[in-house]
Design a protein that fits this description.
Structural class: mainly beta
Strand content: over 45%
Largest sheet: 8 strands, mixed
Distance between the termini: 23 Å
Length: 107
């Protein structure tokens, strides 16, 4: 059934980590999406970093909305994206004013 949700996620909850924004079951205060997917957001600057376990049977898509950030050793700049297929971990570090979106997607 179609629906609509709107929530505010403050910057402090995304600072130096990935915060779940949307999921198929609304867990951890996220909005609900009717798909086998999850969306995370994070803000990274300076020494802030995060490591995230990935299911190698799923796809991860990383989109850098602003700033610069190193993702699994690859330098990304604003507007860049990276698809991770078969990876078991995600490493985010060396951010400079970075705002990142991470999509966890079914194949």
């Amino acid at each position: 059934e179609p629906g609509y949700e709107q929530k505010h996620f403050d910057a402090a909850g995304k600072r130096g980590k990935l915060r779940l924004l949307a999921s198929d079951d609304g867990r951890d205060g996220s909005v609900t999406v009717h798909a086998d997917a999850a969306l995370y957001a994070g803000l990274f600057d300076g020494d802030e970093s995060a490591q995230w376990a990935l299911d190698p049977q799923r796809l991860a898509y990383v989109h850098l909305a602003r700033g610069t950030l190193r993702v699994n050793g690859v330098e990304l700049a604003q507007g860049d994206a990276l698809k991770l297929d078969g990876e078991s971990s995600l490493q985010l570090d060396h951010g400079h004013g970075a705002e990142v979106l991470v999509f966890d997607l079914a194949r």
